[in-house]
């Protein structure tokens, strides 16, 4: 598929794409759905991404940082509950030095579980240290490949450095995940087509796609939310173009539309990331408002209804 093919599909009202992506998903990654248990261990962030409720200029968030022991105990209960992957996610919080993180990483890895990190931009040496400590995967969304829009949305960040992070992560041997937001103010469908081609170009192992959801405490408060169907299309096209990768049914999809997670799982997604953080902290991790959560039991019932099941392996990409 070239850019024009992708654009034609993104602009077309035809819904057959979703069925097609579902078929390709079944052929290449099967009916198992991987559950990744998410620990949101700090909402402290030095960045200032315009869309994000955790941006440093938002003074309306009560900030928290979990202690090492708390993180480890959440990870342990996740593993006991049967999770095969733990995901450690936080804002860009410099308190967590590579040294502290590496200690946490090796302790979690001793539980015999796959470990994904989502900690933002770090140096090559830090990424290398995380990998050497045993982490398996790293998520860092490019957010948008439209460089002008990227600049506008990320006043404290640099597009080239973002791409450098992705290159370094691949270089040190991580399964590398990226993705984009759909519906950012000023975003064009052309740039969404470029996003999809970018995923292919870097041969991403995981892609997370979600609609933009307007947060009242950000400069984008009065902007409309992204379009659910367009986000679903970007996700389905990504499945067609990278048939064997892991694609989550993102929380943003479920937040924006009732049954959004179910629709995503039937349009190319094969991963769900239930939250393991306790209720009080979960509430404070307000990237966007009214964030949905995935209850493990409910997910299992939903999967059964659609002929799917919780996969029992670590869920690495099978090339
Ligand atoms: N709406 C939807 N997704 C958002 N993210 C951050 N803020 C928002 C928002 N307002 C996404 C970003 C980030 C991920 C952790 O959450 O894409 O990479």
Describe the protein in words.
With 319 residues, the chain is an alpha/beta fold. Helices cover 41% and strands 13% of the residues. The chain has 13 helices and 8 strands. The protein has helices at residues 3-11, 16-29, 68-80, 98-109, 124-132, 147-153, 159-171, 189-201, 228-241, 251-256, 260-265, 279-284, 296-305; strands at residues 32-42, 85-90, 114-118, 137-139, 175-182, 206-211, 271-272, 309-310. Strands 1, 2, 3, 4, 5, 6, 7 and 8 form an 8-stranded parallel beta sheet that branches. Helix 1 (3-11) packs across helix 8, helix 2 packs across helix 9 and helix 8 (189-201) runs parallel beside helix 9. It is globular. The mean pLDDT is 97. The structure holds 5'-deoxyadenosine. Residues 51-52, 141, 143, 181, 210, 212-213, 215, 252, 287-288 line the site of 5'-deoxyadenosine (5AD).
């Amino acid at each position: 598929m070239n850019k024009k093919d992708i654009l034609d599909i993104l602009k077309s009202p035809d819904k057959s794409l979703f069925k097609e992506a579902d078929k390709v998903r079944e052929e290449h990654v099967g009916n198992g759905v991987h559950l990744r248990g998410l620990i949101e261990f700090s909402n402290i962030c030095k960045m200032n991404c315009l869309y994000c409720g955790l941006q440093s200029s938002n003074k309306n968030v009560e900030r928290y940082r979990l202690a090492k022991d708390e993180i480890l105990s959440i990870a342990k209960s996740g593993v006991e509950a049967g999770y095969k992957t733990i995901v450690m996610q936080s804002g860009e919080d410099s308190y967590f030095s590579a040294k502290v993180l590496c200690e946490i990483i090796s302790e979690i890895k001793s539980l015999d579980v796959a470990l994904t990190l989502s900690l933002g931009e770090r140096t090559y040496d830090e990424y290398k240290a995380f990998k050497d400590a045993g982490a398996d995967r790293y998520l860092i969304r490019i957010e948008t490949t439209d460089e002008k829009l990227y600049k506008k949305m990320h006043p404290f960040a640099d597009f080239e450095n973002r791409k450098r992070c992705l290159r370094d992560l691949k270089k040190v041997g991580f399964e590398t995940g990226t993705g984009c937001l759909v519906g950012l103010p000023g975003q064009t469908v052309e740039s969404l087509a470029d996003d999809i081609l970018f995923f292919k170009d870097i041969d991403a192992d995981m892609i997370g796609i979600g609609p933009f959801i307007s947060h009242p405490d950000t400069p984008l408060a009065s902007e409309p939310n992204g379009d659910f169907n367009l986000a679903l299309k970007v996700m389905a096209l990504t499945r067609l173009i990278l048939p064997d990768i892991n694609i989550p049914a993102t929380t943003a999809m479920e937040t924006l539309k009732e049954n959004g997670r179910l629709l995503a799982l039937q349009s190319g997604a094969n991963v769900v990331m239930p939250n393991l953080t306790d209720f009080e902290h979960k509430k404070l991790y307000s990237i966007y408002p009214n964030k949905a959560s995935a209850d493990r039991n409910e997910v299992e019932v939903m999967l059964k209804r659609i002929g799917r099941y919780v996969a029992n392996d670590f869920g690495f990409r099978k090339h």
